[in-house]
Design goal:
heterodimer; A: 102 residues; alpha+beta; GMP Synthetase, Chain A, domain 3; B: mainly alpha; 0% strand
């Protein structure tokens, strides 16, 4: 039985900050899901705020490294999806307020 | 894990000099404005010299540097031979300098400077086209890269023919070739490239999503057709054909602006930083330029055309580029010097990497300069034009200083 929860994964990823907007990926609403199996293998499903993002692979790498720091984690997979497309309604209220979306 | 995108990204030491020299050429161009009068003929050699200083030294230099970075992002493949940019920079810089000296002091130098610029642009265009062949992606931006490089080649060849014509080495009608050259380079390369990049950069920095792209697709088709029609019309000396081309292009620009309006409506970031203010000003100036362009076709008053060209070059193109420099340069510096430290130590945010005050001064002086200078040309007022030149030069100093600080941040 794996002791890693979805919350642990989201907490780990919340240390990754988008340098352009200054918010972490979780509060931006960019992390859609984290699937953890019994062997503690983790699959993160996420998106990016724009498809042409020059940091695409690098952000994936940071997410990978953040999850890697969780104790007893197994294999890690980070998948970037474009459906559903990200929009500001997916972000936390503090992000919406700061960006002027509220 | 998939290899990170650093594999495709050119190093900062390759790209930074394009921005550094581009800004120096911009500073020189604004300084040179102080020695010009608001009444002139576009065929005057000193005016041609200034236009090349601005377009080759600043606009092309910065676009080449930006494309070195953006092409791998847009095409999702690395450059075929990224090291050619180490050759392009000195060829373009030295070639431009020799050309300007030729225009201003010694016309015999023109073919030599022109040849260096020709080689630089041929290398750039062929490297871009070779990189394009590596990918199957065919987005609108990719298509604009292909078409704009095609027009760049035509623009270079006609420009070189003009250089030979001016020194008497080639028997051509320089005035007709000049129109074809200007249109291929400004309409076919600069404007088309800006249209393509707008679709990537503006939604990226404004966080706009979920918009239709019909308008920009239409703009793209109309602009490539219009530029082609004007180019052919100029070569075969058919004024009516050129008029059709101008009309198609004007409609194309309306569609482009309609697309920008659609994106602006969906903008999430409401913060008015130097980039956002520059974009608002750039598109206001594009609108003003189109209005004045239409007015010129009705009235035929030469000063209205001069003001229209001024507002599109210094108001639209220049503000579009300088606004983006405050986003792209911090990103490049951050990517090179701070990205490897993420997760290990505190790294700066991009907006912390430039002086807000310096950027604000650059923007305010530039806006004042563009407006005063443009109206100076429109009303042929030496006082207004000189005031505009002074404000623009002051704005350029702030641009240079803030750029220098951005590039040395974290060294």
């Amino acid at each position: 039985m794996c002791s890693i929860s979805k919350e642990n994964v989201f907490d780990a990823i919340s240390t990754v900050i988008d340098p352009e907007v200054g918010f972490n990926l979780v509060e931006m609403g960019l992390i859609y899901d984290a699937i953890i199996d019994e062997s503690c293998n983790v699959k993160v499903i996420m998106t990016l705020s724009t498809q042409g993002c020059p940091l695409h692979q690098m952000i994936k790498q940071w997410v990978f490294e953040a999850v890697e720091r969780i104790e007893d984690v197994g294999t890690i997979e980070v998948e970037v999806v474009w459906e559903p497309a990200w929009n500001i309604s997916m972000a936390d209220d503090n992000v919406k307020e700061a960006l002027g979306g509220m | 894990m998939t290899p990170i995108s650093r594999d495709f990204a050119p190093p900062l030491k390759l790209i930074a000099p394009f921005f550094r020299f581009g800004v120096i050429f911009y500073l020189l161009a604004m300084l040179a404005l102080l020695f010009f009068e608001p009444t002139f003929n576009y065929q005057q050699m000193n005016v041609a010299g200034w236009v090349h200083l601005f377009l080759l030294g600043f606009v092309m230099m910065v676009i080449f540097g930006a494309m070195a970075q953006l092409i791998p992002v847009v095409l999702e493949v690395g450059h075929v031979v990224v090291d050619v940019y180490y050759i392009i920079l000195p060829l373009l810089g030295v070639g431009t300098t020799i050309m300007i000296l030729g225009f201003w002091f010694m016309p015999a130098l023109l073919p030599y400077g022109g040849l260096l610029v020709l080689v630089a642009m041929l290398i750039f265009a062929f490297e871009n086209l070779a990189t394009l062949k590596k990918t199957d992606i065919r987005t609108l931006t990719v298509k604009t890269v292909a078409w704009s490089n095609g027009y760049l080649l035509l623009g270079i060849l006609t420009g070189f023919a003009i250089a030979l014509g001016l020194t008497g080495d080639l028997g051509i009608d320089v005035s007709l070739m000049l129109k074809a050259h200007v249109y291929a380079v400004i309409g076919g390369y600069v404007v088309l490239t800006i249209i393509g990049l707008s679709l990537i950069l503006i939604p990226m920095f404004s966080l706009a999503h979920g918009f239709e792209e019909k308008a920009i697709n239409m703009a793209f088709k109309l602009v490539i057709t219009g530029v082609g029609v004007v180019f052919i019309g100029a070569l075969i000396a058919q004024e009516w054909l050129m008029m059709i081309g101008y009309t198609i292009n004007t409609v194309g620009l309306f569609f482009y602006m309609w697309q920008i309006y659609i994106i602006a409506k969906l903008t999430v970031r409401k913060e008015l930083d130097v980039w956002a203010k520059s974009m608002i000003f750039a598109f206001a100036m594009l609108t003003l330029s189109i209005i004045l362009g239409l007015l010129y076709f009705v009235t035929g008053v030469e000063s209205v055309l001069h003001a229209s060209v001024w507002f599109i070059l210094l108001g639209f193109v220049s503000s579009f580029i300088t606004g983006h420099l405050y986003k792209i340069v911090p990103f490049l510096v951050w990517f090179e010097r701070f990205a490897p430290l993420v997760g290990k130590e505190k790294v700066p945010m991009l907006h912390e990497m430039y002086s807000k005050e310096g950027a604000k001064m650059m923007f305010n002086f530039t806006v004042a300069g563009v407006i005063f200078g443009g109206f100076g040309l429109l009303f042929e007022s030496d006082m207004l034009f000189k005031a505009g030149g002074s404000f623009l030069f002051t704005g350029a100093i702030f641009l240079y200083v803030t750029m220098k600080k951005m590039l040395s941040y974290g060294e």
